[in-house]
Structure formats: C-alpha cells, structure tokens
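WARN no homologs supplied; continuing
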Amino acid sequence: MSSTTDKIKGAANELVGKAKQGIGDATGNDKMKAEGAAQELKGKTQSTVGDAKDTVKSTVGKL
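OK structure emitted
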C-alpha cells in the first residue's frame, strides 16, 4: 500500500471509530464504544505507518 492510501484509510477508520464511540456513548452501548475505540486506534496506526513510509522515502531520496 502507498503512504497516501495508508493515510486515507487511517483517517477514515479514525472518523468511523469516533462516530461509533459517540453512538455507543449516546445509547449506552459499551460494546460499540469499545469497537469504536479499537477502530480509532487502528486508524491512528495506519496513519502512522503512512507517515513512516513518507519519512523513509524522503530519507532514501536524499542518499
């Protein structure tokens, strides 16, 4: 996957995760809140991977 794809998927997962947490909080659904937190964390991880790929590309490009 490209760094841009990782970042886009990461942002989408963060957004959906936050929405699930909000819905879970509003409805008192602890399972949905937990799923949302997990999905948000997954998104943050994907975004970090995308950033790392960019860093590697720019570092290799400077060599």
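The longest helix spans residues 30-62.
OK
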